[in-house]
Amino acid sequence: MQSIKTSQAPEAIGPYVQGISIGNMIITSGQLPLDPKTKVMSDDVAEQTTQSLNNALAIIKEAGLNAKHIVKTTVFVKDLNEFSLINAAYEDFFNKHNASFPARSCVEVARLPMDAKIEIEVLAAR
């Protein structure tokens, strides 16, 4: 198992790594929608969705992969009433990268770190 670290995604805010490479798989930690340069988070859930996905993509790119290698996502949301906005941004992300839609789980949670509206983790395969 090898840790993955990139300046193109926010640093871990606790005792964990941005992602790991193990065998043919890359697994990211949950990615908050923080801009890695400004450390700012938009209030808009669609923008948060895109930023979380971009952060996860930066990690798998560091391992030499791209969006087409994403096979599974887990999406944690604060409010499922915003699901249509999240879903539209999610769809746009994968369409923009000409990638197939991966398998996905989506769950509503009581609260996320830094009061984010969304957090996304990704599994990619070589």
UniProtKB/TrEMBL annotation:
Q: Which InterPro entries match?
A: RidA (IPR006056), RidA_CS (IPR019897), RutC-like_sf (IPR035959), YjgF/YER057c/UK114 (IPR006175)
Q: Name one GO cellular component term.
A: cytosol
Under Pfam families, the record lists: Ribonuc_L-PSP
Q: What is this protein's record name?
A: Reactive intermediate/imine deaminase
Recall the GO molecular function terms of this protein's record: deaminase activity
Q: Which family does it belong to?
A: Belongs to the RutC family.
